[in-house]
Input
Amino acid sequence: MSEIVRSTLTTCPYCGTGCGVKADTHADGSVTVAGDPHHPANFGRLCVKGSALAETLVADGRLLHPEIDGRRAGWDEALDLIATRFGEAIREHGPDSVALYVSGQILTEDYYVANKLMKGYVGSANIDTNSRLCMASSVAGHKRAFGTDTVPGTYEDLETADLVVLVGSNLAWCHPILFQRLAAAKAARPEMRVVTVDPRRTATSEIADLHLGLEPGSDVALFAGLLHHLERAGKRDAGFVAEHTNGLDAALAAATAFADPAEVARVCGLAASDVVDFFTAFASTEKVVTVYSQGVNQSSAGTDKVNAIVNCHLLTGRIGREGQGPFSVTGQPNAMGGREVGGLANQLAAHLELADPAHRDLVQGFWGSPAIAATPGLKAVDLFEAVAEGRIKALWIMATNPVDSLPDADRVKRAIAGCPFVVVSDVMRSTDTTDLAHVLLPAQAWGEKDGTVTNTERRISRQRGFMAPVGEARPDWWALAEVGRRMGWDEAFAWPDAAA
Output
């Protein structure tokens, strides 16, 4: 292999772990990737997907230039058309007749510009993200518990805990580097206990001291029973509870329905001895981390599951300290970054509340915008229901393929096909969603784009470009900003680069 002419430190785009990557560009133009040994998420480790990142750096199948109704177009023509059609819809049908559907695959800068454009200048909160599908329960649970969507844990907590409980999380497959860190910590300290809570015995269960193969949907019963047990065992941290919580009496009253471990075992489909073992281990171990993921979130009772878990940590004060706390792990590389800048239809930037007039005034004042969305917009599933009903006249989809990923995909496909004006920004030319677009915009891919992402533990990392964009691909934030400028808000969107 030819000599290395440039090394670039960047971030893996695959999952919420946020591993650091070192991309080496060689004199012959080839690229090799390895883990960044100094990045605190992975310390040089990469999973099989991250290790194969160089294989994705090809032009095959890429969307190379803007298209309008299937024909090649220039960027100016495409952007002018988007600004015109969105503007017409707003004038004729109001701000809520347009919508953006974005993705945890875009960078924080892209998310920020999209939200500023929609919520501050169009004046509608009709912008949601595919992160809604995997993280909405966790967001709602965090806000109900803490008042803000904040993950109170770090990766180091997994290594310093004496008991790690993995709920609805196949860490070995979905977050392999975190699993490797946990497995290494357990090998170094065999007294560390790991409990997996999952209807299936997965690869993650291979390192578990106890696997609780509970009935699907019975997590609330398990953790309500645990809450009652902790209180009965005298594990309440009275000082923490008095200073930092409210509603304890109501929570304990609700948990009395599961006061008997045998009843918990019956509801959960578990052996009573296993339930007692779990309850005893949790009660007798101060340094406990409870990791939960999609098995908890993607449920009709997902928010209640989150709060049932969090309540056990709040009662015992096992939160915000080394090796202690509830820990939601995200799936997409920038689901957290999007949440930080108001990526969901019911949020504002900086974790501010769209429903709070003071927060709206603060954001509008900072933006100097002519409007600010005053009510929550349409959430992902509801948004496409509105498209199907004809209430959305112009729709921009960015870095996601909802015809594949949303529930009732055939109905979503029919909805998009019937929408008067659809824009899709993507790196690939042909997907089930791009095939329905009136306008296609070529987006920069990993290796080309520049900005930041925030991982599961809320660590901000740089994603740096190290190769020239393929064809006429441009950054997503730039396309959004150019449309904003063409709609008459030139100064508000006049950024020269991602850093600005």
About this structure: The two ends are 37 Å apart (CA to CA).
